Every structure is written in structure tokens, then in C-alpha cells.
Amino acid sequence: MDSKQISLYPEEAMRDALQAVRNGMPVKTASKTFNVPRTTLLYKFKGINHESRKMGPATIFSREEENLLVQWLLQMAKSVFPISKKKQYMQL
């Protein structure tokens, strides 16, 4: 479930832009010159790592709780006679 957005710029362009900023070029100018996102360039220059952040809402269950819930649901499905789609339509 871990998806990443694909970069729309070459990695070498970001590397060159970072080097230009380290050499004194303003971030906005480097962003336009090398055609890379300004905020991404700024974050990389400042060393801010967004890889560790997760997108989406916070989880409710821990990984262990979620696994226990899945196992319980699977056991319940095996012990009780699950109703097929065909039987559901017949009951309507």
C-alpha cells in the first residue's frame, strides 16, 4: 500500500540545482533554471526527509491488532456458513 509519486524531473537536474544553491544561487532561481519543484529543492537543501512521513489518515489499529482482526474474521467465515451472492439474490 506504500505508493510513491514518480518524479517529473531528472534526478541529475535536482543534483545540479542543489549544487547551484550550495554555491549561492537563490532557490527560486535554481528551481526555474533547472526546472525542478521549488519546495522539493528547498526541502532537499535543508535536509528535510519526507520519505518517513505517511500519506493518508493515521491508522486505528496497530499492525498486530490488524493481523488478529483478519485472523478472527477468517475464522468466523470458516465456522459460519457464509452466504454466496447467488443465495443473497434468492433471498431478495
UniProtKB/TrEMBL annotation:
UniProt main location, coarse: nucleus
SUPFAM superfamilies: Homeodomain-like
Subcellular compartments: Nucleus
Domain annotation HTH psq-type: ranges: 11-53
GO cellular-component term (any): nucleus
InterPro entries, per database record: Homeodomain-like_sf, HTH_Psq
Name of the molecule in the record: HTH psq-type domain-containing protein
UniProt organism field: Cryptolaemus montrouzieri
